[in-house]
Amino acid sequence: MAYIGTSPSNGVRRRFVYEATASQTSFSGNDENGITLTYVDSLYLDVYQNGVKLKAGDDYTATTGTTVVLAVGASANDVVEMVAFDVFSVNDSVSAKDGGSFAGNIGMGGTLAVTGVPTFTGRSVHSGGITIANAGQIGSVGDADAIAISSGGVVTFSQNTVGAGGMDLLLSSTISSAVAQFDISSTYFTSTHDDYYLHYTLDPATDNVSLTARVFVSGSVVTGSVYQYEHILHGGSGGKTSNGDTAFHLTHDGMGNVAGEGASGQIIIKNVNNTAFPLTISGTINKSNTSGNHNATTFGGSLDVSEKGSVVNGFRLFMSSGNLAAGNIKLYGLRS
After folding, report:
1. Residue 304 and residue 231 share a domain
2. 227 shares a domain with 260
3. What is the DSSP string of 214-280?
4. Do 153 and 213 belong together in one domain?
5. What is the pLDDT along the chain (336 residues), one digit of tens a residue?
6. Range of the domain at 155
7. Same-domain check for residues 328 and 189
């Protein structure tokens, strides 16, 4: 057992003083100051007679922890003094000043306040939830602002979320001046997603034209007669179909070019990377014709089955004649 030097605050050193009677050999119980004699180990006990230190074993014995027996009886009024030192091991503790590490579990009944940055190597479990400071952020080391939470509780993601199901916004674009066509390139049509959702509002520069679309394969637009489609015009008679056109026709008939007479719709584009099936599209469209009357159309389409081995890496929107005057386009990748 290790001994740590005198520490009054811990009561390591204890002193017992007795005044002997004639021929007294045994000393125990309360001393002159009313303190009861006790010691833990005789190796850590010093005995004095009239100030002279006695030798253990020759001059006295101390085996019981409560009694000291002299080999020769003391004279009357001799002062017999015992000094006992408590024995203990160094406490297994972490320094409050210098810090350290805990190897075992720690339980805390109160509040833990941390002014530095806590680091967790394992999973952190919070049964009561987590509260983030106003305008706080959550992120990885490389993306400190991946999630931003405003004081009003609004959550903003700086990166696309990843997980089963849902959509990833890949493109959001505005056409503010006339263009011949709008191309969505291989930057957005990739192997990451096999299916896409396209949302658009487009105005034509020319009256009585149709909205059409083509695809890109290996970076080149496909212009061959491989586009198949069918239309149903809601509230009207007849339909429109083709099994070998040079483009998808997304509108049933012509639309007007007066402000607000354009087309607004959505398209599901499937099998972009699937070489077992050809690319297919389906969707709905709302438009106004040249008289300003509303038309609604449901449509579906596919590349010819001979194109099933083609990986599509782009999509083009254009009018059957003239330019796209204005519009808004958003493309989402659909997670499987």
Report:
1. yes
2. yes
3. EEEETTEE--SS-EEEEEEEETSS-EEEEEEESSEE-SSS-B--STT-SEEEEEEEE-SS-TTS--E
4. no
5. 444 444 444 457 899 999 999 999 999 999 999 999 999 889 999 999 999 999 999 999 999 999 999 999 999 999 999 999 875 555 677 888 888 888 888 888 888 888 888 888 888 888 878 887 787 778 776 666 678 888 887 888 776 666 667 889 999 999 999 999 999 999 999 999 999 999 999 999 999 999 999 999 999 999 999 999 998 888 766 678 999 999 999 988 888 888 888 899 999 999 999 999 999 999 999 988 888 888 899 999 999 999 999 999 999 999 999 999 999 999 999 987
6. 133-160
7. yes
